[in-house]
Specification:
Blueprint lengths: L29 H10 L20 H10 L20 H15 L9 H4 L6
Length: 123
């Protein structure tokens, strides 16, 4: 197998065993640097969890669980679910998203003008 092309930066190969990629930071390629970065740091703030911290003192699993189950409720009337995006729960957000795409005949929100993307959701 051919060796990957290296830019002439003087960094040399990645120091991870068996990796022929160019070193990017701390003697590691981007892939191995990111893996090493995730392992560093204190453990999650939840009792008994030894996973590394991700954000707000929690690991990825606990942070996502807290994000999904805490915070304001959906802004649709009588919906008890927690808000996910644009003040709506997952169910109402996806309904709004699909309806908006159908109405404007596009395949992605970024194809729409900002005034439409940022429009208020009716209650």
């Amino acid at each position: 197998m051919a060796e990957p092309a290296r830019r002439k930066t003087g960094r040399g190969p990645c120091r991870a065993p068996g990796c022929a990629n160019e070193a990017w930071a701390r003697g590691l390629c981007a892939r191995h640097y990111q893996a090493d970065y995730r392992k560093r740091g204190p453990p999650c703030g939840r009792h008994g969890c030894e996973n590394p911290r991700f954000a707000k003192g929690l690991c990825v699993k606990h942070y996502q669980a807290a994000y999904r189950h805490e915070g304001p409720n959906c802004r649709k009337r009588k919906c008890p679910n927690h808000a996910f995006s644009r003040g709506l729960c997952v169910k109402h957000y996806h309904r709004w998203y699909q309806k908006t795409l159908r109405e404007h005949g596009v395949s992605a929100l970024k194809s729409l003008p900002s005034r439409v993307r940022e429009g208020a959701v009716r209650r």
